[in-house]
C-alpha cells in the first residue's frame, strides 16, 4: 500500500475516534444535565424493564413508592452512560434480586459505620463510667484507700482511653469483610502491644504524687460515673451513634 494512502487512512481513523469521543462527551454532558423524566425517556426497552422490576422489588422489600423511585432515579445517569457504551443494566448490576440486596446492604453499612474517633470516645466514656461506679462501690467497703487497692483518677482516665481505642479498633476490624481484615495474628500482636503500652503507661502515671493523681472519695466516683454516662448519652445523641463497641450493632 502507498505510504501516503496508509497515512491518510490512519488520519481518518484518528479523526473518527476524536469525533466519537467528542460526541460521547456531548451526550454525557446532556445526560448529566437531564431531569429524571428526560433520562427515563432515553432508556432502552431492556433497561426500562429492568428498572421497573427493580422499583417493584424495592417496594416489596419494605420501601415506600417514593423511596424506591428515588433509588431508581439515582441510577438513571449511570444506566444511560453505560447504555451508550452498549452495557445493559442487567450486565452492570446483575439480577434485580442482586441489586436489591446490594442497595439494602449498602444502607445497613452506612447506618453501622461510625468514624473511629467517635467510636473510641464513646467506648472510653462507657468504660470510664463502669470503672468509676465500680471504684465508688468498692470504696464504701475499703477503710483505708491506697494505691494498692484503688487507682488514681489520672490512671483511670489513661486506662479507659487506651481500652476505648483498642476495643474500638478490634471491633471495626471484626465488622470488615474477611478479605479486608488484617490477618488474625497481626490483630493479636497489635492488641498485645497496645496492652503492654497501656500497662507501662499506667504504672508510670501511678507514680505521680497524690496531688496530681488523687484517689477520689467513693461518693465522688459515683457522681462522676453518672456525669460521664450522661456525657456519653449526649455524645451519642449528637452524632447519631446507634452501635457500640460491645455489641457491634
- The outline comes out as elongated
What is the total domain count?
Answer: 2
Helix content: over 70%
Rg to the nearest angstrom?
A: 30 Å
Sheet with the most strands, sense and barrel status: none
What amount of the residues lies in strands? under 5%
Structural class: mainly alpha
Order of helices and strands: HHHHHHHHHH
Description:
This protein is mainly α. The chain folds into two domains: 34-104; 116-239, no CATH class. 75% of the residues lie in helices and 0% in strands. The chain is built from ten helices and no strands. The protein has helices at residues 3-33, 36-42, 45-60, 65-84, 89-93, 96-112, 116-139, 153-175, 184-206, 218-238. α1 packs antiparallel against α4 (65-84). It is elongated and about 100 Å long.
Please specify the SSE layout and strand pairing.
Blueprint lengths: L2 H31 L2 H7 L2 H16 L4 H20 L4 H5 L2 H17 L3 H24 L13 H23 L8 H23 L11 H21 L11
Helix pairs in contact: 1-4, 2-4, 3-4, 3-6, 7-8, 7-10, 8-9
Features:
249 residues; mainly alpha; 2 domains; elongated; DUF1129 domain-containing protein; DUF1129; transmembrane helix; membrane; transmembrane
Question: What's a quick, concise take on this entry?
Answer:
By secondary structure, the chain is an all-alpha fold. The chain has helices at 3-33, 36-42, 45-60, 65-84, 89-93, 96-112, 116-139, 153-175, 184-206, 218-238.
Amino acid at each position: 500500500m502507498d505510504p501516503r494512502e496508509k497515512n491518510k487512512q490512519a488520519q481518518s481513523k484518528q479523526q473518527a475516534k476524536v469525533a466519537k469521543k467528542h460526541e460521547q462527551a456531548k451526550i454525557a454532558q446532556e445526560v448529566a444535565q437531564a431531569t429524571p423524566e428526560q433520562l427515563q425517556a432515553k432508556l432502552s426497552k431492556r433497561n426500562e424493564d429492568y428498572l421497573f422490576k427493580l422499583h417493584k422489588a424495592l417496594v416489596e422489600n419494605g420501601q415506600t413508592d417514593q423511596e424506591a423511585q428515588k433509588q431508581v432515579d439515582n441510577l438513571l445517569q449511570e444506566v444511560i452512560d453505560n447504555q451508550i457504551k452498549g452495557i445493559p443494566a442487567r450486565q452492570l448490576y446483575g439480577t434485580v434480586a442482586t441489586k436489591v440486596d446490594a442497595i439494602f446492604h449498602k444502607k445497613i453499612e452506612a447506618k453501622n459505620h461510625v468514624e473511629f474517633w467517635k467510636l473510641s470516645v464513646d467506648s472510653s466514656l462507657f468504660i470510664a463510667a463502669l470503672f468509676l461506679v465500680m471504684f465508688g462501690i468498692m470504696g464504701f467497703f475499703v477503710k483505708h484507700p491506697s494505691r494498692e487497692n484503688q487507682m488514681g483518677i489520672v490512671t483511670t482516665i489513661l486506662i479507659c482511653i487506651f481500652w476505648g481505642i483498642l476495643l474500638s479498633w478490634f471491633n471495626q476490624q471484626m465488622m470488615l469483610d474477611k478479605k479486608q481484615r488484617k490477618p488474625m495474628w497481626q490483630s493479636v500482636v497489635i492488641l498485645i502491644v497496645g496492652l503492654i503500652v497501656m500497662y507501662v503507661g499506667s504504672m508510670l502515671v501511678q507514680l505521680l504524687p497524690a496531688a496530681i493523681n488523687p484517689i477520689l472519695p467513693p461518693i465522688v466516683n459515683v457522681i462522676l460515673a453518672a456525669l460521664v454516662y450522661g456525657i456519653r448519652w449526649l455524645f451519642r445523641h449528637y452524632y447519631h451513634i446507634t452501635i457500640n463497641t460491645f455489641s457491634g450493632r
